[in-house]
Design goal:
Order of helices and strands: HHHHEHEHHHHH
Helix content: over 70%
Shape: globular
CATH topology of the largest domain: Methane Monooxygenase Hydroxylase, Chain G, domain 1
Strand order of the largest sheet: 1-2
Strand content: under 5%
Largest sheet: 2 strands, antiparallel
Structural class: mainly alpha
Radius of gyration: 21 Å
Number of domains: 2
């Protein structure tokens, strides 16, 4: 069962337990929390098996989205991906900042920044080119974690990013012991790129928050690059 659905079930069980404890104090019939919890569990199970957990993902993301810090973390995380990808010359095809936006675009999970990954095809590159391209993508995948860590000292998101990095490394015959080493290296590299282009990063966040198009976001970055060159 999808982890999001399991989280929703856990919330339902907690709610039933709490209601059972507090019900007598407020003269609430035990039937009400029981029926409510049964409904939540049924919906979670149906969502997991029929909709691949998308409903639970949308609900939990909407609840989390009421927190301004949560929204800011997501924005900083995705702007990190976007800026580093642009800086390294990796084509950006789109981005989303909520599960609902991702759902409307047909993307799984919470969405995020999407890239043209065809350049990772082993058939299109020789060994050295492939290694360099994989290194670039590793920096991009870890850039969201890097951006969050720079501001908050830690990252809440990034599980899917780590999974992508590990899947690609595994497909190239890398050993599991190399995964964390590569992650740490990529995070440090991404943090350096973000810090060196901090003004562009903050301007990009403003554009993404307004849901500017990919083209408009890249123009914002380019403008700040040009301003920096003039000032320098």
């Amino acid at each position: 069962m999808d982890q999001t659905a399991l989280n929703l079930i856990a919330i339902g069980v907690f709610g039933m337990t709490l209601s059972a404890l507090l019900g007598p104090m407020f003269n609430i019939s035990p039937v009400i929390p029981a029926v409510t919890t049964l409904g939540v569990l049924s919906l979670a199970t149906l969502d997991s098996f029929s909709f691949q957990g998308k409903g639970a993902t949308l609900l939990l993301d909407w609840l989390a989205g009421t927190s301004s810090q949560h929204r800011d973390r997501i924005l900083r995380h995705e702007a990190g991906h976007f800026l580093v990808a642009y800086t390294l010359g990796i084509p950006i095809t789109g981005y989303t900042l909520t599960a609902w936006e991702a759902f409307k675009q047909g993307q799984p999970g919470l969405g995020g920044v999407t890239f043209d990954t065809e350049v990772l095809s082993p058939d299109a590159l020789d060994v050295r080119q492939l290694q360099l391209t994989v290194d670039r993508f590793c920096k991009v995948w870890m850039a969201g974690i890097a951006a969050e860590t720079l501001v908050y000292g830690s990252a809440e998101g990034g599980a899917e990013d780590r999974q992508k990095l590990r899947e690609v490394l595994a497909s190239l015959g890398r050993q599991g012991s190399e995964f964390q080493q590569k992650e740490r290296w990529a995070i440090r590299q991404a943090q350096t790129l973000i810090e060196e282009n901090w003004a562009s990063y903050e301007a990009l966040m403003g554009a993404m928050e307004q849901r500017a198009s990919v083209a408009e976001c890249t123009q914002v970055i380019q403008q700040h690059y040009q301003d920096s060159e003039v000032a320098g």
